[in-house]
Amino acid sequence: MSPAQESIKDADFILPPDVDAKSFVAAMDEMRKVVGSENLEIITAAKMMPDSDGHYFNLPREHDLFYCLEKDTFLASAVIVPGSVEDVSAIVKLANKYLVPLWPISRGRNLGYGGAAPRLRGSVVLDMGGRMNKVLNIDDEHATALLEPGVSYFSLYGYLQNNGHKHLWIDSPDLGGGSVVGNALDRGAGYTPYGEHFSMHCGMEVVLPNGEIIRTGMGSLPENNTWQLFQYGYGPYPDGIFSQSNFGIVTKLGIWLMPDPGNAPTIRNTLIDAAVYAQKAEYSLSKEVLTETEVDEIAKKIGVGRWNIYGALYGPEPMRKLQWEVIRSTLMTVPGASFQFAADVEKEPKAKVLHMREETLKGIPNTYELGWLDWTCKNGSLLGFSPISPVTGADASRQYEMVKRRFHEFGFDYIGTFVVGWRELHHIVCLTFDKTDPDSRRRAHRCIELLIDDAAKLGYGEYRTHTAFMDQIASVYNWNNNSTLRFNETLKDALDPNGILAPGKSGIWPKRLRNRGFEIQRSSPTSDGASSKP
Ligand code: ADP
Asked: Is the same domain home to 382 and 251?
């Protein structure tokens, strides 16, 4: 053994389970040869404690910007930036050789759901977007795109604007800096008729956990010209198993663009709008959860209602006029209802939420909604809680009461929005907290932990979650003695026998790491001592 090798100590690294420092260093040496030394960064304890945590535009890739447990709970051992699908395949093969787990991200802006950080401490973050960030193809005639993981909503929008495709619209979620591919894979949502992002994808290229590369749908037919036109191809349709999963790394994704859009409204509460403009302290001296009367006063001050529907009508003007007449006469039967058009509202001295939503409804990416992060403190953090329900008033009210009760118990103002989907409501609840205050973090974490079980008892499940709650949510999707989780584990063990790809994602652990204490249990039992029954 050389002196250099002898001096390698476990304590110098953020090691994944079952890997000692020597084999970690050997793995990194081999991976460095694949991507080049400038594209591989080893994280050390010292490196991970900078004074500043970064922010939305300068994101930490090794830990969660908005950590709700300890800062180093979900911490990466290294960050690797591959430059091609061949690089990815080679890295995956080496990961199998050394049992080094990989955690792929696209832009890593998974705000409120864990950011770029891996679920399993010591995993290597594979930054798929750093160099693989090209718009590979735009098909004007059929309104489709083929993208690499690093293409953000801003960059796709810019590409279409600057390359003669202005007639093609995209659907952007609230924040435009995220990856189109990453958001579709995590089944994120937007606000136009193309807002159901995963449904709008067509064709994938995927590196499997053994390093093999496949193309789904028509992509498996050589020389095909319909990869982005027909979603299914021939035989079983596997695309779904690569979303919110740890069964593959997506290197290319086709998506449909919007030539002729329709309408998709959101229903937002007063405070989410108020928080876009300013901090809580500018509206109220109260340090407590705001009372109903105080929220009424804020609504009056910023000129909105307690609930506000933002929507758009699309198509030729005569059609829009007809549609508006039907909508207006229906909605105006609601006591106290009123309406405004963006064009009739002064933009000066400051643009209103109505103007901001107008951009979003036109598919123009923006970052206005970052505003409400700071509701109770500067540099505030976000935890997302997002249960799904039918599109009924009764369900929306039940969910609102359920969340408000827990938020009040733990000292948080309710900030949320109901996004109307094709057949369901995405209820997006935004818990803002102060990560620099351990008590605020504890309350935020416990509040969501209890809400997950509250929701399950009422039959509501979350569509997506922060890394800290992946195991808990998998545990409430437990019909027929957890048959779904067992099915996922069967697939996982077949596809990833060494357990190297994103262990723990969506609560799916590979055999090698299952039941070894990496699952996160509830911090204490829920009030009645149980999660929902199968
Ligand atoms: P965004 O920047 O759009 O918010 P992220 O890059 O944070 O999205 O991705 C969200 C989640 O989707 C990640 O945590 C990861 O689990 C999954 N993911 C992202 N990109 C890929 C990819 N290329 N292959 C497989 N899974 C991915």
From this structure: no
186 ligand 1 Cβ < 6 A: yes
Query: Could you read off the pLDDT of 18-63 as tens digits, one per residue?
Result: 999 999 999 999 999 999 999 999 998 776 655 567 788 888 888 8
392 CA to centre of ligand 1 in angstroms: 31
Q: What is the pTM of this model?
A: 0.82
Helix 270-277 crosses helix 353-361 at what angle (to 10 degrees)?
Answer: 100
Q: Is there an atom of ligand 1 within 6 Å of 197 CB?
A: no
Q: Domain containing 198 — which CATH number?
A: 3.30.465.10
182 within ligand 1 shell (Cβ under 6 A): yes
Same domain, 166 and 65: no
Nearest CA to ligand 1 atom 9: 182
Distance of CA 131 to CAs 64, 83, 256, 435, Å? 21, 5, 23, 31
Q: Is 185 in the pocket of ligand 1 (CB under 6 A)?
A: yes
Six token digits for residue 281: 């302290």
> How many domains is the chain built from?
3
The per-residue b/e assignment along 490-503, b for 16 or more CB within 10 angstroms, e otherwise, is eebeebbebbbbbb
Residue 482 falls within a domain, yes or no? Answer: yes
Whole-number Å distance, alpha carbon 372 to ligand 1 midpoint, is 23
Does the annotation mark 113 as catalytic?
Answer: yes
Residue from 48, 120, 3, 164 nearest 502 by CA: 120
Enclosing domain of residue 433: 266-470
Q: Is 157 among the residues known to form the active site?
A: no
Residues 157, 250, 88, CA angle at the centre, nearest 5°? 115
Q: Is residue 528 part of a domain?
A: no
Asked whether residue 446 falls in the same domain as residue 316, the answer is yes
Pocket mutation for ligand 1, best pick of 62, 186, 207, 243 (most atoms within 8 Å of C-beta) = 186
What are the strands, taking DSSP E only, across 182-333?
201-207, 213-215, 249-256, 266-269, 307-310
Residues 478 and 463 in one domain: no
With tokens 């994101």, the residue in question is: 59
Of 98, 113, 194, 368, catalytic: 113
Write down how long the chain is: 534
Residue 320's CATH number: 3.40.462.10
Which of residues 194, 222, 256 is at a domain's end? 256
Instruction: List the 78-80 sheet strands across, edge first.
Output: 40-42, 78-80, 124-127, 102-105
* Segment among 65-69, 347-351, 412-416 with least mean pLDDT: 347-351
Among residues 225, 256, 287, the one where a domain terminates is 256
pLDDT digits (tens, 9 = 90+) for 66-120: 888 888 899 999 999 999 999 999 999 999 999 999 999 999 988 889 889 999 9
Residue type, 174: D
Residue with CA nearest ligand 1 atom 23: 250
Report yes or no on 527 lying in a domain.
Answer: no
Same domain, 237 and 280: no
CA of 265 to the centre of ligand 1 (A): 26
